[in-house]
Design brief:
Helix content is about 25%, strand content about 40%. The chain has a single domain, classed as Archease, Possible Chaperone, Chain: A, domain 1, CATH 3.55.10.10.
Length: about 140
């Protein structure tokens, strides 16, 4: 099963993430989002950054997870290439993002993602596996 694919949208861009578990679909959604930002092959998973968010439902939890990762990138100039969910329940997700500080000499930035949106957002089970669709404001 592929981890994610890009979704074309009139004004924005999105991803469809896949996983055998809810945790894996959250990890793959984060990977998909950062693959739009930069070439993940150029980002070394040197440092670990803890991530913990809470929300009222599953869809909001996915948005909060991705927005927190985007905030860490924007505020600290850190690119991530790997993600690991370490704990999850109905209203909270905890994990680790692995990456390194942005190095303009090695990292080419592709898409400037401003925010994760609720537009066309969905997460759920499809044929026994999980999938999520997320549109990003660019």
């Amino acid at each position: 099963m592929k981890a994610f694919e890009t979704i074309e949208h009139t004004a924005d861009i999105g991803i469809r993430a896949f996983g055998s578990s809810r945790e894996e679909v959250f990890e793959n959604a984060a990977t998909g989002m950062f693959s739009l930002i930069t070439d993940l092959e150029s980002v070394k998973p040197l440092d670990e950054y803890p991530v913990s968010v809470e929300a009222e439902d599953e869809e909001a939890l996915l948005v909060e997870w991705l927005n927190e990762l985007l905030y860490l990138y924007d505020s600290n100039s850190i690119l991530f290439s790997r993600f690991r969910v370490t704990g999850m329940d109905a209203n909270r997700v905890r994990g680790i993002a692995l990456g390194e500080p942005l190095d303009p000499g090695r990292h080419r930035l592709d898409t400037d993602i401003k925010a994760v949106t609720y537009h066309m957002l969905r997460i759920g089970r499809v044929d026994g596996n999980w999938s999520a669709e997320v549109i990003f404001d660019v």
